[in-house]
Amino acid sequence: MATRSVLERSRSALHLRLLAAQRRLAAKQYGAIIVIGGNDRLAASELANQLTEWFDARTVRVCAPDAASAEGRPFLWPYWQEVPAKGRMTIVVGDWLTRTTLEVARDELSGDPLRARLKSLRTFEELLAADGTSVVKIWLETPEKSLRRRLSEAEDTDAEGWVVSPDDLLLAKKSSLNLARELRAQGSGKNLPWKVVIGGAETKLRDLHAGLAIAAQLGQASRRRAAAKAKKPGSRPRGLLESAAPHPTLDKKAYGQQMAKLQVRLGRLTRLAYTQGLSTVVVLEGPDAAGKGGAIRRLCGLLDAAHYQVYPTPAPTPEEKARHYLWRFWNKVPAPGRLAVFDRSWFGRVMVERVEGFAQDAEWARAYAEINDFEARLAEAGMVVLKVWINISKEEQLRRFHAREDSPHKRHKMTAEDYRNRKKWDANLRAAEDMIARTDTPHAPWVVVSADDKRYARVATLKAVCRALSDRLD
Amino acid sequence: MATRSVLERSRSALHLRLLAAQRRLAAKQYGAIIVIGGNDRLAASELANQLTEWFDARTVRVCAPDAASAEGRPFLWPYWQEVPAKGRMTIVVGDWLTRTTLEVARDELSGDPLRARLKSLRTFEELLAADGTSVVKIWLETPEKSLRRRLSEAEDTDAEGWVVSPDDLLLAKKSSLNLARELRAQGSGKNLPWKVVIGGAETKLRDLHAGLAIAAQLGQASRRRAAAKAKKPGSRPRGLLESAAPHPTLDKKAYGQQMAKLQVRLGRLTRLAYTQGLSTVVVLEGPDAAGKGGAIRRLCGLLDAAHYQVYPTPAPTPEEKARHYLWRFWNKVPAPGRLAVFDRSWFGRVMVERVEGFAQDAEWARAYAEINDFEARLAEAGMVVLKVWINISKEEQLRRFHAREDSPHKRHKMTAEDYRNRKKWDANLRAAEDMIARTDTPHAPWVVVSADDKRYARVATLKAVCRALSDRLD
């Protein structure tokens, strides 16, 4: 056992090491997420508090994501909210592996759903690491005997409301320790292991050990940037979006009739979805002037404003830019029963960011898998996920640009960007074809809508959304 | 009745007027909140949708704040989330006056609480207007007979799930119309009246009338900036924070004993508050190096991380800067049962912003009332609100600056700002005395803690928080 003065000197040295590691992270603009799991809730809180004393408090925050707040959204949703910005640190107490352990110990999770959960945890950690965020995980484990003693003392001595929860007792069990060990092994991203720190009587010593482990892992992370290499995807069969066949059309009368019927129908379906708690995510993508905005307004024409939300996707704000590109979309995952419509979306990563070179090759190349994983999480949480590509021809786009320029009502829609983007028509088309081929999944399919005729496109979009909802509302 | 072509021509002209008004707002960096209330939920959604077509979609968003999401927070909390940034517009469906009308019609709100509610609505609207946000309010009223016909038709023809809610039927009543008229008169900010638009059969005509009213109000707002004049507050009795008496001290042993006892006590109290759903807001303010951070870490030393959250208050982000200064604090109002600790806070408006001239005289002068109103809303929602001024002497601050510079563990806490701020010691002190005198209220009191001795200050802070909580947890 260290004498007090040795302990204090070690803690003082550690304090400086942690400050230095934090400065290095900030200088290199890496984020860090420090996860404190384990079977000892109080110890985790104490350690988090101690870390805020050691670190420069201005760029670190402690959070305890509330699993209950997910209500109908994916398991990882509350954790995504807390993803740190570049150069900043988040300390997470009440982590994803402790929660998963509890669910398994309570017999609420097993078999395929458990395997899917563990895969989703691996993917989440790897995706953060690949984006330059240090993922540092400390598992605080207090031996069953000593933990039980503390828990029962707490129950004995406190008349004013300490409640040792059934969860605390469940996690204290030896069987849970073994279970957690296995889950840690299976639910960790590549090269992102949990570091186990054994807790005991001496708080200061325990925090020293944990702090040393954190300093070591932060140091590593800042030396080797997780340079996930992903090859550029090979070429794909072409022509999906270029057909010589003329786009279908719809005359005004048929359009009026069908539109009225479909709007009423979608109104009913969304009200039913609202009462049943079925959430829906609809994405519209397509070239400039394809008519996404108009299609969305028809889509929502008869919906109750309380049941849906339309999200445009402008250039990211500084807060968004400082985080993983999926963060701002995780934030907008709909509450139970709601419809979220995205006017452009996360696919910007493999479209504009790829074509304009805003994302490196490795970044957009791995994005297909990240996006499929994101959409799989939504579907797994029971949501309807539908993606619509509003497809116009190059000639039609030019006609619409001219029409916009000629109309005082539409002139504001034209920007200097539009003709610049148009010059990259072919590159955009190739990117779109790759995107559709690589992210068309059974749980989140793409629908391609021919849109040289706006009326046809609006009806077809409404039909596709109605079908996706009614398939799930039998 | 207008013929179709006249109607279409009027709508086309209105479309251009609205675009021009929107451009003017953006150029002048005014925000606008367009509120659509009334007794016809579907009509409100339709109008909102139509407005997104008329306005440039890039800077307007529709939202339907979910009153249920407030759960234990103040009534206005969901609306505060949606306050528009400068240069942007928010369209609110499901507004505060319709909701208030419903509560009164359901006999859930009357007497003093109703009067308080109406006052809070007036204050909210005035505070936005004073900050340069256009508050435009449209009350869509469909006559009872025609509304009932539509509602019963909807119920008849739709097997798939349209539910005409009891609220819809209640709002349709003639008595509710009269009630709403009265509430609109009493619950509107000065010069911020509701504009009533009568709905009927013809959707396009109704939207035209509503649009014209909106264009007129936006035009007005952009002509006369709500230049709320508020006089600089007169001088106040001085000396509250400057006492010749020496600061009380605490020796190490007494400190250790009292701290251990108080931390356990606060741990119990916060757990009890958590189970009872009692939320707490604690604010720490004080000069640089007063020891706010250290006091907060001791305060939270034995708390469960899931029960509290510490919020530092760095310089506002661009998103925060573009909105009313209270917005970023409304966002952080704690969920039921949680403790929120603010390391500096909204009082920056009347401290640093006043002293440095970041806020104009009229802005910080009216902030006292705005802050008192904000805290009254928190208290009204049942929260404990406590403000602690950690008070050190000018000499002690200098000693601590030197100690920080000498310590490798603390050097990062010193910035170039610190000595600059110190030069304004007297101005800061005067601002603090004004602030405490003007915002010390029964529901949200100030506690001044002498802090030249850190141990004494930490214990006193813990004691004050324990007392505030235990007073409410009998």
Short précis:
Two copies of one chain form a homodimer. With 474 residues, the first copy, chain A, is of the alpha/beta class. Chain A contains 19 helices and ten strands.
SSE blueprint and pairings:
Two copies of one chain form a homodimer.
Chain A (H helix, E strand, L loop, with lengths): L3 H25 L3 E7 L2 H14 L5 E4 L13 H4 L8 E5 L2 H10 L5 H20 L3 E8 L2 H14 L8 H7 L1 H13 L7 E5 L4 H21 L28 H25 L3 E6 L6 H8 L8 E5 L5 H4 L5 H4 L8 E5 L8 H4 L5 H20 L3 E8 L2 H13 L9 H8 L1 H15 L6 E5 L3 H19 L2
Write up what this structure looks like:
Chain A has helices spanning 4-28, 41-54, 77-80, 96-105, 111-130, 144-157, 166-172, 174-186, 203-223, 252-276, 292-299, 318-321, 327-330, 352-355, 361-380, 394-406, 416-423, 425-439, 454-472, and strands at 32-38, 60-63, 89-93, 134-141, 194-198, 280-285, 308-312, 339-343, 384-391, 446-450. Chain A is α/β, with parallel strands linked by helices and 474 residues long. Chain A has two domains: 4-223, P-loop containing nucleotide triphosphate hydrolases (Rossmann fold, 3-Layer(aba) Sandwich), CATH 3.40.50; 252-472, P-loop containing nucleotide triphosphate hydrolases (Rossmann fold), CATH 3.40.50. Chain A has a five-stranded parallel beta sheet with strand order 2-3-1-4-5, with helices on both faces. Chain A is elongated and about 85 Å long.
